[in-house]
Amino acid sequence: MRAMDVMTSKVITVDENASVQAAAKLLVEHGISAVPVVDKDNQVIGMVSEGDLLHRTETGTEQRRSWWLEMGTSTAQQVAEYIKSHSDKVGDVMTRGVFSVTEETPVANIAVMLETHRIKRVPVLCDGKLVGIVSRANLVRALAMMVSEPPNGTETDDRPIRDKLLAELKAQKWTEVSSGNITVKDGVVHLWSSYLSDHERRALVLLAKNIPGARRVENHMRPIPTHLPR
């Protein structure tokens, strides 16, 4: 299994000239913990995460050290921390030197990368341009899928099924399902998205069942809460 089989292809991105508040709003609205920063050519130049926004002057969480710790901190580090906590520009607070993979990178290699570098997600690039993202959640879903379905040697037939399913979903105006929530293993389609109504859930399962080559549909979907818990 490779990155292209599990990645989320509809990636939320932000421009380096966007405001920090705009980036924070993206994270909250889409329920994600980080977003790639791309240039005009859709090339990844950084990543801005919740960790990058943890110490901010607006919320009174900027880093403050005792005098003796301050003495052991270099001037360059102090300047960098000040900019990160006070600048309103994404380009000033984002993390640079982002690790990335290609569509052909095995998921085993991605798992090692995430663990080794203690990161939660990695952009997927094709010819230097962003085409997807693989997160820890994507890998966990892939694991759950493989545990429930022992391999039978039909992996090469799974990708056309997934491609046809994604194309059919894209053609429907009544739903927006992220490609990262669709996995196929040995002809079995696994649906991991959320749904607004029981009718939408039934329609999604029916659509998946009608894809040529699909042997069965495993429904892992959950309803979207209609109200926030107290």
Describe the protein in words.
This protein is an alpha/beta fold and 230 residues long. The protein has 2 domains: 1-148, CBS-domain, CATH 3.10.580; 149-230, Histidine-containing Protein, Chain: A. The chain contains 9 helices and 11 strands. It has helices spanning 3-6, 20-30, 67-71, 75-86, 90-93, 107-117, 136-148, 158-171, 198-209; strands spanning 14-15, 34-38, 44-49, 101-102, 121-126, 129-135, 182-185, 188-191, 194-195, 216-219, 222-223. The model has no long low-confidence stretch (mean pLDDT 84).
- Which CATH class of the largest domain is shown? Alpha Beta
Helicity range of the residues?
A: 25-40%
Uncertain ranges:
none
Residues in β-strands, percent = 15-25%
Order of secondary-structure elements: HEHEEHHHEHEEHHEEEHEE
Under CATH, the topology of the largest domain is which?
CBS-domain
Shape: elongated
Number of domains: 2
Q: Count of DSSP E strands?
A: 11
Labels describing this entry:
Histidine-containing Protein, Chain: A, elongated, 2 domains, 230 residues, alpha/beta, three-stranded mixed beta sheet, 9 helices
SSE inventory with pairings:
Blueprint: H1 3-6, E1 14-15, H2 20-30, E2 34-38, E3 44-49, H3 67-71, H4 75-86, H5 90-93, E4 101-102, H6 107-117, E5 121-126, E6 129-135, H7 136-148, H8 158-171, E7 182-185, E8 188-191, E9 194-195, H9 198-209, E10 216-219, E11 222-223
Parallel strand pairs: 1-2, 4-5, 8-10, 9-11
Antiparallel strand pairs: 2-3, 5-6, 7-8
Summarize the structure.
With 230 residues, this protein is of the alpha/beta class. 37% of the residues lie in helices and 19% in strands.
